[in-house]
Design brief:
The structure is a single chain. By secondary structure, the protein is mainly beta. Helix content is 10%, strand content 47%. It has an 11-stranded antiparallel β-sheet, with no helix packed on it. The protein is globular, with a radius of gyration of 17 Å.
């Protein structure tokens, strides 16, 4: 059981330049708007125990730097129940709160023979592809922390996921801090 704080970074410039559905004029305007947002991490928290995990923003009411804006300063909670293989999600979108319940659907991970140390933990590399979102996902997980949890909706590996990279740096989740504990109670949604 424990708590992990992840730094989530999104390369908005890369995201905008890859968008096929917008004109070059819109792409230029959006690139100008997001140029100061690039690589500013958002702190996300994952509380976990042997039966599940609870993932959300570190602080929903976090401060926004002057001259920037955030579309993600509202509620977004993902709670997994590993025993019942279910997911509950609470999302704030377009001025309304939505609640979603579903079955747990881990990615089809391919564990590779590559090792790396992250924050003092020996980690193994795993990859997956999401053909629906056209994403190439690389995860680094540690079996030293034997819980099948990770940031966002990334679960299903035989250890805690400490780092995720999507599409070669488009989105990156990296561990900022980890605190292990005897027990952690997961809040209800």
């Amino acid at each position: 059981a424990g708590k992990v704080i992840y730094d989530k970074k999104t390369d908005f410039i890369k995201l905008i330049t890859q968008a096929k559905f917008i004109s070059q004029e819109e792409r230029d305007r959006l690139t100008q708007s997001y140029k100061n947002e690039e690589n500013k991490p958002i702190k996300m928290v994952l509380d976990f125990n042997e039966s599940g995990s609870y993932y959300t923003f570190e602080s929903i009411n976090r401060e926004i730097d002057e001259g920037s804006f955030s579309l993600m300063n509202k509620e977004n909670i993902i709670k997994y129940d590993f025993e019942n293989k279910t997911l509950q999600q609470s999302i704030y979108f377009l001025g309304k709160n939505y609640s979603v319940s579903d079955t747990l659907k881990p990615h089809n991970w391919k564990v590779l023979n590559e090792l790396r140390e992250i924050s003092g933990y020996l980690c193994m590399k795993a990859t997956a592809e999401d053909s629906l979102k056209n994403e190439k996902i690389t995860a680094w997980f540690s079996t030293d922390i034997g819980v099948s949890a990770g940031p966002d909706k990334f679960v299903g590996l035989p250890g805690l996921i400490l780092e995720i990279d999507i599409n070669d740096g488009l989105v990156n989740y990296s561990i900022n801090n980890i605190k292990l504990a005897e027990t952690v109670a997961l809040p209800n949604i």
